[in-house]
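Comment thread on ticket #2218

A.B. wrote:
> Attaching the input chain for the structure job we discussed in standup.
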Amino acid sequence: MANSFRYPGEFEPQTDVFVEWLPFGEPIKGYDAIAPVTEIVRHLVDEVQVHINCCPTVPGLMDSCIEALKAGGVDPDKIEFTSFNEDPTSFYFRDNGPNVMVNDEGETLVVNPSWSFYGRYEKNEGLRQYSRLAGVHAAITLGCDNIVSSDMVSEGGDREFNGAGVLIAIEDTEVRKRNPEYTKEEIEAEYKRLWNVEKIIWLPQPLYDDDDFTQAPLDYKEDGTPVVGSSFAAHTDEMCRFIGKNKILLAEVTEEEAAENVISRENKRRLDAAYEILSKETDLEGNPFEIIRIPTSAHIEYIQSPGDDLFDYYHELVGDNFKDGTPWVNDADLHLFAATSYCNFLVCNGVVLGQRYWQEGMDEAIKEKDEKAEAVLKQCFPDRKIVMIDSLALNLAGGGVHCWTKNVYCPRS
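C.D. wrote:
> Ran it. Output below, let me know if you need it in another format.
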């Protein structure tokens, strides 16, 4: 690895953003996921070159994408469209999109880690190899063909860079869940080689409701019905973000919130552990990090019944039992929590695209949290426009604004 290459922080200048067009319009009936993606593109199109990938295995997807963009006030001629023939399950482009590193001479290096669809594909399974091609193909469209590969699994949503030699990642995700055949020391050495960083700050665990939902229910109703999360990502970008070389934004659960339910209580324990680590860490120059706190989002519950798409999909992934032995719900309704988070925002030049959740008829407390989160983002990015995207439908699909996008700095000669 040439010592001059580095992975820029997201708060630095960007040239391109890749967006994966959702292969489904409604993750749950009545929740429009296309509208927020269109809104994301509309706010990015004058900031960077936007690339939209429409999976060719979904008939008519590019045509419907172009129509949606036009209806949303976006000129399709400003968009670079691609149609990579990859596995249609790999549409969270943050995770297997192009990883472009740069140096001071304007050269680029593409890092190509392995991909396992969040631990679901076996090492030699065809789809695992097929899916990781997406990032390479996207990078080549930018003219980047200097590529370094690795057999270790690593997803973009679990990597936070300060652009100056420091990487934050979730230890439980990277070591136990994604790369169990390697030791932590082996993984750290490989990541330092791939990403040319000198320090990796390991946070112990992800948010409880962002953890792998197949492991165990989050909670139980009074009648014993399990409450299930809607994510298996277990990523740092749901809870902790670099917002500057020496500045970190970390989610926070109050004592009052922790007393309300077991999910908030467990999230507080995990976030407090992360804060304890980060508060004692420094950058490579020995400076302690400034840590700013942002609220965790409200727990928004929705129900899926047998025969609904998500019910059947989750049943397929879980099987007859969760990993802790809890039986699947069988003929009962499935109580799901949307994978909501105010940390899953995208920073792109003059704009920050945040997430909001309150809709007419919802508890006003959700609206208050939205407003608090927006105020924190304005505090963190005073010179950028803050746009809060109605992201509930995206989160129902298991990802947010940051998950469906991949920002890149790629100098052009």
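A.B. wrote:
> Thanks. Noting for the ticket: The mean pLDDT is 92.
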